[in-house]
Amino acid sequence: MGSTAADQLTRRILAGMGLQVAEAKTDICWVGDGFEFLGFRITGRSVQPRPAALERFKNRVRAATRRQAPMSLARMIENLNPLLRGWGSYFAVGTVAHLYVDLDKWIRTRLRSKVRGSKARQISNRKMPNRVLAGYGLVSLVELRQARLSPA
Predict the structure, then answer these.
(1) Across the chain, what does the average pLDDT equal?
(2) What is the CA radius of gyration of the chain?
């Protein structure tokens, strides 16, 4: 790896904090080419969760929302909310508005299927509107992002 003024400055700043650059993980690249850092995939103007981070999150949601789990919907939501708050807050700074809308829909569909005992379909969406799930205290990723990004 070549040494640039920015590279040298970064190393001096990190050394002043008692940190050092991990050579095996470090590379100098163009932002437009994209790179991964702290769970994010950064490309040009887009900052999104790495595909592996998104898949791990979805697997954890799947595990927490199994239809056959011997617990009430309220308990399932109570167990799911810390995961939603943590993951949702961490990645909220990214370019995730559309992703969060899609994930909210997917999570609500999984929860509706718990009540129906089968895959949730449009009819079950009418029978259990979003406000019912919100009444159980379900955390919305979209609302989390809005709260995180709005000025205090």
Answers:
(1) 87
(2) 20
